[in-house]
Write a structure and sequence with these properties.
Belongs to the peptidase C14B family. GO terms for molecular function: cysteine-type endopeptidase activity. By secondary structure, the protein is of the alpha/beta class. It has one domain: Rossmann fold, CATH 3.40.50. The chain contains eight helices and 13 strands. Strand 12 and strand 13 form a beta hairpin. Helix 2 runs parallel beside helix 3. The longest helix has 17 residues. The protein is globular and about 55 Å long.
Length: 341
């Protein structure tokens, strides 16, 4: 059995975005076109327009709220069986909570996803990093194979006026207004030390059943792309991931090969001075999306970048074991899908 949780949030009370709902709706279409049994849960808030706040007519059960997202994660954990696959895709704002660790007596950074609060309040609520880590750890402990995609960033204060950046400044009043609903359920087996640990440090809870793909490094910003055709926006990570899935014929494929492909596409953007971000990949590099794809050990894939003069450049060199007179084979991303072996 395969499960997908898709979260797309444009309609923030402040700094609304334009491409997040489109990201996850396109992922949903890809999933629905696939054969096999896939349970899809999608939570979106697009508002009456790309710049409006939350549409009052939208069913609150469909909102990307803290309550809905946490309940859905817990539901999947409860009904899924060992060996089932879970794909979680988040497109929205991220933030960073700076707090003092009482044990270490030093400042720690706790990452958080910026979701909606209670219905009709027009407020935001943080899904803190340690909360997310605990929820996903429960999945991994049950034997679920989890892939988490985060098309947001956790750094962005220097570009706070850029409407395409998927980052919001931390607001202490939001944190204080919504104490964690998970404190009582995890205290008996985790203790305060684990609760103050950041998502960045703890998302590799079980490398054999858990992978995380993020839109950028910890000190970079994730932006939305504006497409030339129609001017539609997408998160850069979601857009190139969708293109990879299109080449592969659906949501699947070896995650490491897809990651190398994404790195090459992001390098193209940097060469054109459009975006300065690099996707990050954590966890078991031999897994495939939904278990669909070749997981056999292969020679390392080398990303290829097309230069302005249409020549190609390998993203590897002497330091990676490449030498003069080496013979390399150029293959498309989807070459495994056409292999008879």
């Amino acid at each position: 059995m395969r499960y997908a949780l898709l979260i797309g949030l444009n309609a923030y009370p402040e700094s609304p975005l334009k491409g997040c709902v489109r990201d996850v709706v396109e992922i949903q279409k890809r999933l629905e076109a696939m054969s096999g049994n896939i349970s899809i849960e999608i939570f979106t808030a697009s508002g009456k327009s790309d710049t409006d706040c939350i549409a009052s007519t939208q069913d609150s059960e469909e909102w990307p709220s803290y309550t809905n997202v946490v309940a859905c994660l817990q539901k999947i954990t409860g009904i899924a069986q060992a060996g089932d696959f879970v794909y979680i895709h988040y497109s929205g704002h991220g933030t960073t909570i700076e707090r003092l660790d009482d044990d270490a007596r030093e400042s720690v950074r706790d990452l958080a996803l910026v979701l909606l609060g209670v219905p009709e309040s027009g407020e935001m609520q943080y899904l803190r990093g340690w909360e997310m880590a605990l929820l996903l750890r429960d999945m991994v402990n049950k034997g679920l194979i989890v892939t988490l995609v985060l098309d947001c960033c956790f750094s962005g204060s220097v570009v706070r006026k850029d409407p395409t950046v998927r980052y919001l400044e931390y607001d202490a009043s939001i944190d204080a207004a919504y104490p964690s609903q998970l404190l009582g359920t995890v205290h008996h087996h985790d203790g305060p030390t684990y609760r103050t640990a950041s998502l960045r440090e703890n998302w590799l809870l079980n490398p054999d059943g858990y992978t995380t793909l993020t839109a950028c490094g910890p000190n970079e910003v994730a932006k939305e792309l504006t497409l030339k055709d129609g001017g539609e926006r997408h998160g850069a990570l979601s857009y190139f991931l969708l293109r990879a899935f299109a080449k592969l014929g659906g949501v699947g494929g070896n995650q490491q090969q897809i990651y190398h492909h994404l790195c090459a596409r992001f390098r193209d953007l940097r060469e054109k001075r459009l975006h300065e971000q690099t996707p990050m990949f954590y966890g078991n590099r031999d897994l495939s999306f939904f278990g669909l794809g070749d997981t056999r050990k292969r020679s390392n894939c080398i990303p290829v970048v097309v230069n302005a003069d249409k020549s190609i450049r390998l993203e590897a060199g002497i330091a990676h074991g490449i030498a003069v007179r080496d013979v390399l084979e150029l293959k498309p991303l989807n070459f495994d899908t056409h292999s008879s072996s």
